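With this grant's support, we have settled on a layout for protein records. A representative record follows, to show the layout.
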Amino acid sequence: MTYRRYQTTATAVIAAGLMSCLAFAAHAQSTTSNMDGLKLSKDQPIQIQSDQLEIKDQEKKAFFTGNVQVVQGSTTMKAGKMTVLYTGEGASVTAGAADIDKIFLDDTVFLTSGTQQATAEKGEFDMATQTFTLEGKQVVLSQGANVFKGCKLTVLMETGQAKLDACGGRVEIMLDPKSRPPKQ
């Protein structure tokens, strides 16, 4: 088994979308909506920093641990851990030649872009299905004074469609009427 370990700040080129969107709208046990908030751009570089990076090329895995921060444009993601699974014959994350398969986020996930934010215990991005999921005892989405609470947020990246599921009860939403854009 071959692996490399990098300490302190690890900045790697990972050409993949990682997160998308925050929510609006709701009802009873779950809510479905189109999302337009947190997005990564395909043409902007992604900067990743962590306290430690361990790459296991034979297993096609990269482990970012400790104060993980991913930034692209105005979007920032923070987590305690991030595991990247990649594919490709002879693929290497350090060479920038890896195709990302899945990304797992753990130990409190925080996403922000402009006035939109999301927090959860864990997250997963599946490149094949272009699906991003945040889960935990409580997933909190906010845009300004508007707040949405549930246990699982699923975003279909290609369509922007999102679904927020409840925690066995109901989705909680607080909307501030003052946050609505003025009518034209």
